[in-house]
Automatic annotation (TrEMBL):
InterPro entries for this protein: Aminotrans_V_dom, GDC-P_C, GDC_P, PyrdxlP-dep_Trfase, PyrdxlP-dep_Trfase_major, PyrdxlP-dep_Trfase_small
Gene Ontology CC entries for this record: cytosol; glycine cleavage complex
Lineage, highest ranks first: Archaea, Methanobacteriati, Thermoplasmatota, Thermoplasmata, Thermoplasmatales
GO biological process annotation, one example: glycine decarboxylation via glycine cleavage system
EC number(s) from the headed UniProt entry: 1.4.4.2
Matches recorded under PANTHER family: GLYCINE DEHYDROGENASE (DECARBOXYLATING), MITOCHONDRIAL, GLYCINE DEHYDROGENASE, DECARBOXYLATING
Keyword Metal-binding: no
Entry keyword set: Oxidoreductase, Pyridoxal phosphate
Protein name: glycine dehydrogenase (aminomethyl-transferring)
Substrates-to-products reaction catalysed: N(6)-[(R)-lipoyl]-L-lysyl-[glycine-cleavage complex H protein] + glycine + H(+) = N(6)-[(R)-S(8)-aminomethyldihydrolipoyl]-L-lysyl-[glycine-cleavage complex H protein] + CO2
C-alpha cells in the first residue's frame, strides 16, 4: 500500500514530478544556475589560508591556558579516528556487526578503570562538565535509593573549585556550601568539619587544585566524608598531574569524571564534540547511564541491564571519534604516560621558579601541572599583560581565575612545551613588566584584531551582521 501510494502519479505531480519511473524525474525546484562570484583558485586558496593564519592553535605553539589544558593533539590519533572502518559505522548497527567498534570502547573503559582505580566506567557523557552533571545525578539517585535524599541536600565545594562544580551541583538540585582554603592553598580542614552534617551528600574537589597544589590532607578529607555517610567526588580536570603516579581510587574517591582533552590529548572541543567519561566504585554501578559496553561468551555487547540507571545522558553511546583518539593516545604512550605527567609538572615548576623573582606566586612553593601568579605587586593589570603577550605571538594564560587570587594569571605549559618555548614565554612575561603603561594598554598591535572594548562587547551584543 505504501509503495502504491508513493508512486501514485497525481501525488507525485503535486510535488513537481513529471515522471513516475524514478529515473528521469524533472523537479521544478531544480536550480538552473548558481549565483557565485568568479574567483581564481589561487585567490580562494590565499583567502582561506590568511583566515587560518589569523587564528592561534596548538599546532602553532604553546597554549598555556591554566585549568583548560590545551596541549598538542597528535596526528596519529586523528588519522586513526578517521579510518573508513570507524567513520562509516552506523550507531544503530547490531552488536554482531559492531564487534571492532565495541572492542575499542570496551578497551577504553578498561584502561580508564585501571587509571582511575575505580570499578566501572561509562563513556557516554559528552564533556567534562557533562560528566560532572552525570556524577551528580548518580549521587542523587544513590541517596534517593537509600531514602536519604530529603535530608542530604548539600554538596560541599572548596573556594578554589572550577565554576562547573557549583553549577553541576545546583543543576542537580543540591545546595552548594563553599569552604575556604588555608594559608597553604589547601582545603581548610576545620572549616570542612564544621560544614559537614547529616545534610551533606558529597564533597567535590580537584586534586591537585586550580592553584596547582596537591592537597596533602586528601586522606583525612576522605575519612571525614565517609564517616559521615557522604560521597567523595573527583573532578578529573587536573588528572594529567597525577596520571601514572597515583589514582583517585587510592585517595578514597567514589566517583570520577575524566576530561579526555586534558589528560589524553583529544581535541578540546570548543563547543564541538568532547568526552567526559565517568568512573565509579562497584556500589554505584547500578546507577550508571545505559548502555555500558560489556563482554560475555566471546562477544562484546551493549548492556542495558543496569537496574537503577539514571538513564541516557547523551545520544547513542558518546562521542566515538573523541573516545578512539583517547584510546590511541593511551596505547601509543603506554608506560610513558607517567613521563608525560612528570614533564608537565617539571615544566610548571621551572616556569614558576623563573618568574618568582618578578611576580608574586602565592601559597605553597611546590606546584604540580600548573601555577597561579599575581601581578598585584607589580603595579600592572593581569589583563594588560595578557594582551601584551599576544604581540609576542604566544597565547596568554587564563586570567582572573581562581577568584581567590587577586590579578591572577594561571599558567599551564603542559608537557607539550619545550625548554625553548618556556624560556621565550618567560622572557615575554618579564618584558611585559618593563613595558611602558601606555604601551601595555595599547597592546596588542600586531594581531589581526586590536584590543576591543570588552565591557561594551558584553553589554551591546552584536548578534547579527
Amino acid at each position: 500500500m505504501y509503495k502504491q501510494a508513493y508512486y501514485n502519479e497525481p501525488y507525485l505531480k503535486d510535488f513537481g514530478f513529471n515522471s513516475i519511473k524514478g529515473i528521469d524525474f524533472d523537479i521544478n525546484l531544480k536550480r538552473k544556475s548558481i549565483k557565485l562570484m568568479d574567483y581564481n583558485e589561487f585567490d580562494v586558496s590565499r583567502h582561506y589560508t590568511r583566515l587560518s593564519q589569523m587564528n592561534y592553535s596548538v599546532d602553532l605553539g604553546m597554549y598555556p591556558l591554566g585549568s583548560c589544558t590545551m596541549k598538542y593533539n597528535p596526528k596519529y590519533a586523528d588519522k586513526i579516528s578517521g579510518m573508513e572502518s570507524f567513520q562509516e559505522m552506523h550507531p544503530l548497527m547490531n552488536d554482531e556487526c559492531s564487534q571492532g567498534t565495541l572492542k575499542v570502547m570496551y578497551l577504553l573503559q578498561d584502561y580508564l578503570k585501571k587509571i582511575s582505580g575505580l570499578d566501572y566506567v561509562s563513556l557516554q557523557p559528552s564533556a567534562g562538565a557533562h560528566g560532572e552533571f552525570t556524577g551528580i545525578l548518580i549521587i542523587r539517585k544513590y541517596f534517593e535509593d537509600l531514602n536519604q535524599l530529603d535530608t542530604r541536600r548539600e554538596i560541599i565545594i572548596p573556594d578554589s573549585a572550577h565554576g562547573t562544580n557549583p553549577a553541576s551541583a545546583s543543576m542537580g538540585g543540591f545546595d552548594v556550601i563553599e569552604v575556604p582554603s588555608d594559608e597553604n592553598g589547601l582545603v581548610d580542614l576545620d572549616a570542612l568539619k564544621n560544614a559537614v552534617s547529616e545534610r551533606t551528600a558529597a564533597f567535590m574537589i580537584t586534586n591537585p587544585n586550580t592553584l596547582g597544589i596537591f592537597d596533602d590532607n586528601i586522606m583525612k578529607i576522605s575519612e571525614i566524608m565517609h564517616k559521615n555517610g557522604a560521597l567523595l567526588y573527583y573532578d578529573g580536570a587536573n588528572f594529567n598531574a597525577i596520571l601514572g603516579i597515583t589514582t583517585p581510587g587510592i585517595m578514597g574517591f567514589d566517583i570520577v569524571h575524566f576530561n579526555l582533552h586534558k589528560t589524553f590529548a583529544t581535541p578540546h572541543g570548543g563547543g564541538g564534540p568532547g568526552a567526559g567519561p565517568v568512573a565509579v566504585r562497584s556500589f554505584l554501578k547500578d546507577y550508571l547511564p545505559v548502555p555500558l559496553v560489556s563482554f560475555k561468551n566471546g562477544m562484546y555487547y551493549l548492556d542495558y541491564n543496569i537496574p537503577k540507571t539514571i538513564g541516557k545522558v547523551s545520544s547513542y553511546y558518546g562521542s566515538f571519534s573523541i573516545l578512539i583518539r583517547a584510546l590511541s593516545y593511551i596505547i601509543k604512550n603506554g608506560n610513558y604516560l607517567k613521563e608525560r605527567t612528570v614533564k608537565a609538572v617539571l615544566n610548571s615548576n621551572y616556569m614558576s621558579h623563573q618568574l618568582s623573582g618578578y611576580y608574586k606566586i602565592p601559597y605553597k612553593e611546590l606546584k604540580k601541572h600548573e601555577f597561579v601568579l599575581s601581578t598585584e605587586n607589580t603595579g600592572k593589570k593581569a589583563l594588560d599583560i595578557a594582551k601584551y603577550l599576544l604581540d609576542y605571538g604566544v597565547h596568554p594564560p587564563t586570567t582572573y581565575f581562581p577568584l581567590i587570587v587577586k590579578e591572577a594569571m594561571m599558567i599551564e605549559p603542559t608537557e607539550s612545551a619545550t625548554k625553548k618555548d618556556l624560556d621565550y614565554y618567560i622572557e615575554a612575561m618579564v618584558n611585559a613588566l618593563k613595558a611602558d603603561d601606555n604601551d601595555l594598554k595599547m597592546a596588542p598591535l600586531n594581531t589581526s584584531v586590536s584590543r576591543i572594548d570588552e565591557l561594551k562587547a558584553a553589554r551591546q551584543l552584536k548578534l547579527h551582521w
